[in-house]
């Protein structure tokens, strides 16, 4: 069985090869060919254009991530199944909890170190800080990541509201509501967490009106996709302190291969003192890679055995 693993994921070929064992050929590729058929039993990639999908001759397109916005699923040929993989919910949830604690503890206001000169003055004039317990957290999207964040946030004493398409009750949340009630919920939200997929319904979901409806003391955490929040509206809301703080791990522009300079946004977010800006690292852990590639190897094994595949996002036509 031939497996091609493409782009930024190509360095994981050795890991996948070891997991699969004999009988599988795992070939790393820096990128897909620009013309001609793309032949493999399995293609592992997070990006497949409509043109590439039309030239694809494989049985399984396995994306090594949860997001599907880089895949032209509708253009896949008949007989090709597409699957995704999660396993990033643990570190992303830890990132969100860190952002909440960083916001309420305000440790940045304290001296970097205590020495004989600073200690007496700091002790005498130490500032009060907040507590996470008793605050309200609203999660837009309540899949694998949302539930994992909610579990950890509840342990800190936060009250959890889950906003989903249908608003069906979920035991991991204190209340579950349809996302159409977003504007009703925002004025009472202390922490707004975006962990929903990017699609035609969520693109630009949080714009200037939504940010204006939030508390001036509110924290926004975006671990979804940057475009869920309108770029200019977020910059201006932070710059003008219409919301207190944001933790953003996803960006509006990503460098292309070989691009030496690439601003993450059209706006100078790096100048904002009330922003925790991170380079898409919330889920980027050694544990993530171990769990994801174990899942991918198992799914490829299922394909080889003729067993049902897991996490099917596009069945064969």
Secondary structure blueprint with pairings:
Layout lengths: L1 E5 L6 H8 L4 E5 L8 E2 L2 E3 L5 H5 L1 E2 L2 E3 L18 E3 L5 H17 L12 H7 L11 E5 L3 H12 L3 E6 L10 E4 L3 H4 L5 E4 L13 H6 L5 E4 L8 H9 L5 E4 L26 E3 L8 H20 L6 E3 L3
Question: What this model shows, in words?
Answer:
By secondary structure, this protein is α/β, with parallel strands linked by helices. It folds into two domains: about 1-85 and about 285-315, NAD(P)-binding Rossmann-like Domain (Rossmann fold), CATH 3.40.50; about 90-275, 3-Layer(aba) Sandwich (Rossmann fold). The protein has nine helices and 15 strands. It has helices at about 15-20, 50-55, 90-105, 120-125, 145-155, 180-185, 210-215, 230-240, 285-305, and strands spanning about 1-5, 25-30, 40, 40-45, 55, 60, 80-85, 135-140, 160-165, 175-180, 190-195, 220, 245-250, 275, 310-315. The strands form three sheets. Strands 10-9-8-11-12-13-14 form a seven-stranded parallel beta sheet, with helices on one face. It has a six-stranded mixed beta sheet with strand order 2-1-4-6-7-15, covered by helices on one side. Helix 5 links the parallel strand 8 (about 135-140) and strand 9 (about 160-165). The protein is elongated and about 70 Å long. The mean pLDDT is about 95.
């Amino acid at each position: 069985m031939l497996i091609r693993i493409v782009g930024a994921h190509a360095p994981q070929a050795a890991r996948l090869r070891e997991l699969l064992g004999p009988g599988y050929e795992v070939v790393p590729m820096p990128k897909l060919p620009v013309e001609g058929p793309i032949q493999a039993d399995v293609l592992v990639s997070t990006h497949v254009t409509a043109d590439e999908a039309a030239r694809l001759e494989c049985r399984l397109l396995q994306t090594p991530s949860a997001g599907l916005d880089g895949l032209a699923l509708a253009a896949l040929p008949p007989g090709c199944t597409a699957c995704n993989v999660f396993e990033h919910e643990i570190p992303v949830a830890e990132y969100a909890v860190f952002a909440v604690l960083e916001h309420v503890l305000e440790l940045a206001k304290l001296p970097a170190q205590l020495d004989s000169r600073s200690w007496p003055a700091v002790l005498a004039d130490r500032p009060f800080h907040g507590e996470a317990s008793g605050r309200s957290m609203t999660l837009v999207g309540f899949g694998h990541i949302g539930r994992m964040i909610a579990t950890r946030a509840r342990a800190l004493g936060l009250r959890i509201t889950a906003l989903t398409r249908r608003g069906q009750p979920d035991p991991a949340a204190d209340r579950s509501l349809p996302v159409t009630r977003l504007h009703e919920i925002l004025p009472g939200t202390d922490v707004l967490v975006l962990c929903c997929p990017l699609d035609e319904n969520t693109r630009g979901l949080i714009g200037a009106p939504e940010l204006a409806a939030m508390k001036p003391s509110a924290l926004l955490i975006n671990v979804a996709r940057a475009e869920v929040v309108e770029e200019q509206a977020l910059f201006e809301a932070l710059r003008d302190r219409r919301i207190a703080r944001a933790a953003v791990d996803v960006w509006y522009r990503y460098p292309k291969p070989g691009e030496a300079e690439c601003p993450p946004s059209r706006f100078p977010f790096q100048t904002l003192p009330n922003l925790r800006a991170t380079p898409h690292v919330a889920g980027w852990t050694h544990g993530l890679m171990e769990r994801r590639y174990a899942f991918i190897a198992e799914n490829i094994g299922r394909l080889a055995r003729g067993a049902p595949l897991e996490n099917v996002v596009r069945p064969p036509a």
